[in-house]
Amino acid sequence: MLFALMAHDKPGALEIRKANRDAHLAYIADTGVVAQAGPLLNDAGDMCGSLVILDVDDQAAADGWAENDPYAKAGLFESVAILPWKKVIG
Fold first, then answer.
1. How far is CA 50 from CA 33, 40, 43, 77, in A?
2. pLDDT of the chain, 90 residues: tens digit per residue
3. Domains of the chain
4. Residues 6 and 51 sit within 8 Å (Cβ to Cβ)
5. What is the CA radius of gyration of the chain?
């Protein structure tokens, strides 16, 4: 089942994001459940959040993945929403 995770960074947290990026990308590779992902960008083109499409069994698995993401553990996010998602195009 697909879930869309949309997270918005805390204001001024770009350095936290940069410092934890390698661990975050390794987590994505190691878990093998990310169908698509990429950073959200602000008007200046700087990373300011994340959009991750997870392919997991249920909401609990999506929530667990999100909680164990190195970005979350580093306190990067101001808010996180995880909702079931239906792929229609692409």
1. 16, 5, 15, 9
2. 999 999 999 999 999 999 999 999 999 999 999 999 999 999 999 999 999 999 999 999 999 999 999 999 999 999 999 999 999 998
3. 2-84 (3.30.70.1060)
4. yes
5. 13
pTM exceeds 0.90 for this model: yes
Contact (Cβ atoms closer than 8 angstroms) between residue 62 and residue 72: no
- What pLDDT was estimated at residue 90? 85
**Structure tokens, 75:** 């306190």
Cα 4 to Cα 8, 16, 42, 70, 90: the distances in Å are 13, 22, 20, 18, 15
H or E stretch at 25: helix 14-31
Which tokens in the block code for residue 58? 């249920």
Local structure of residue 10 (DSSP, 8 states): P
